[in-house]
Design goal:
The complex is a heterodimer. By secondary structure, chain A is mainly β. Chain A contains no helices and twelve strands. In chain A, strands 2, 5, 6, 10, 11 and 12 form a six-stranded mixed β-sheet that branches. Chain A has a four-stranded antiparallel β-sheet with strand order 3-9-8-7, with no helix packed on it. Chain A is globular. Chain B is mostly beta strands. Chain B has strands at residues 5-7, 10-13, 19-24, 31-37, 44-50, 53-57, 65-68, 75-79, 88-95, 107-108, 112-116. In chain B, the strands form two sheets. In chain B, strands 2, 4, 5, 6, 9, 10 and 11 form a seven-stranded mixed β-sheet that branches. Chain B has a four-stranded antiparallel β-sheet with strand order 1-3-8-7, with no helix packed on it. The chains are: A mainly beta, B mainly beta. Chain A binds chain B through residues 4, 32, 34, 36, 41-46, 49, 51, 90, 92, 94, 96, 99-110, and chain B through 4, 6, 31, 33, 35, 40-45, 48, 55-56, 58, 91, 93, 95, 97, 103-111, 113.
Chain lengths: 117, 117
């Protein structure tokens, strides 16, 4: 069964500092990986995704993530955090069939990001 | 592209009542998904449709839950005889079957927050 682990429930950083959110997945085949962000009371917004090719993917709002197959990880990074980045971040994995994904996503439990001024 | 819309955004009901939620996917998206998110957790898959066909149902979807997508466009999720444990955010997402850049990506609506008293 597929699963996603986000080891950090809550992270606090100062504005302007760098950020790394961890994500480890368990999946029997080539995964399709996503990072979503959720502001309080809102739906999820896609930040970036990976399904093949370059293992470093760029997303919106200055975020990037690196896929490391050997470590089963897909960590999210940002070099300089802005106060508006405060939100909850979810890593998700889905089945990858030749570059398309079908069916359900399995999400981690999320990491809440707090940004201090 | 107007995004995925959900109605209502909030619903408060008494235990034992029936409730119905509606989801309008992005136009021409063939796949439509329902997820449930409880406080402090990531979304959990409930069910998904490809056009009118319901292709997968989670074991979370008890017989009190039913979902339909009669014309392959909007979808409804009905919960009969609601219980306090049904209180959650119900999220809808849609994805296209074609389009290299967006293939496999699920776009989420704002969710319907259900409170069962």
């Amino acid at each position: 069964a597929q699963s996603v682990t986000q080891p950090d429930i809550h992270i606090t950083v100062s504005e302007g500092a760098s950020l790394e959110l961890r994500c480890n997945y368990s999946y029997g085949a080539t995964p399709y990986l996503f990072w979503y962000v959720q502001s309080p009371g809102q739906g999820l917004q896609l930040l970036l995704k990976y399904f093949s090719g370059d293992t470093l993917v760029q997303g919106i709002k200055g975020f990037e993530a690196e896929f490391k197959r050997s470590q089963s990880s897909f960590n999210l990074r940002k070099p300089s955090v802005h106060w508006s980045d405060a939100a909850e971040y979810f890593c998700a994995v889905g089945p990858n069939a030749g570059g398309t994904s079908y069916g359900k996503l399995t999400f981690g439990q999320g990491t809440i990001l707090t940004v201090h001024p | 592209d107007t995004g995925v819309s959900q109605d209502p955004r909030h619903k408060i009901t008494k235990r034992g009542q029936n409730v119905t939620f509606r989801c309008d996917p992005i136009s021409e998206h063939n796949r439509l998904y329902w997820y449930r998110q409880t406080l402090g957790q990531g979304p959990e898959f409930l069910t998904y449709f490809q056009n009118e066909a319901q292709l997968e149902k989670s074991r979370l979807l008890s017989d009190r839950f039913s979902a339909e997508r009669p014309k392959g466009s909007f979808s409804t999720l009905e919960i009969q005889r609601t219980e306090q444990g049904d209180s959650a955010m119900y999220l809808c997402a849609s994805s296209p079957l074609r389009g290299a850049l967006s293939l496999g990506t699920q776009y989420f609506g704002p969710g319907t927050r259900l409170t069962v008293l």
